[in-house]
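no rush on this but wanted to send it before i forget. what follows is a protein written twice so to speak, once as letters and once as C-alpha cells for the fold. mainly i need to know what kind of three dimensional shape the backbone takes. thanks a lot i owe you, the record is right below.
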Amino acid sequence: MDKFINRLKFYLIGFGLGCVMVWAIFYSGDDARSSWLPEGRVLEFIEDTELKIINKHIACVLECNNITISDLDKTFFQRAKVNFSESSTTREPCPEYQIEGKLADGRMITLLIETCEPRRLSTAEEKEDIATIVNISFEGIKLDCLCE
C-alpha cells in the first residue's frame, strides 16, 4: 500500500506541474479570448486593422441609425463572436467573416467583413491590411432612411 501511495504522490505532483505549464503557455493575460484559436485570430486581425466602408448604402444606413465606425471599437470585438458557418473562409484572395456582437447601447449587430492581408494580395495591389464592411444587419434598424 505504501508503494501505491508513493506512486500516486509522484503522479499528482507531475500532473499538477503539467497543468501549471499548460496554463502558463496558453494563458494570454488580460484578453478574454485566445489569439491562437481561429476566432481569436480573426477578431484580433479585424480589431488591429482600420475598418473601411466602401458601399455608400451601408454608410447611409449606419449614419441613419446613429452608428459610427468608432462604435465598433476594441470592446465590441472583445465581446464579438465569429459565425464560421455563415462565413466564406476559403474565398480567394480575401475571405469574408460574419461577426456578431453587441454595441455599447445593447443593440445586436451582425457585420459581414471582408479581410485582405498583404500576403494574399498580388504585388500590384495595396501592401496594407484591409478590412472592409460588406454587409450589415442589426436589431431596431430604421427602414425609412433615404438611402439610395
User: Anything to note?
Assistant: The chain has a mean pLDDT of 79. The first strand starts at residue 51 and ends at 52.
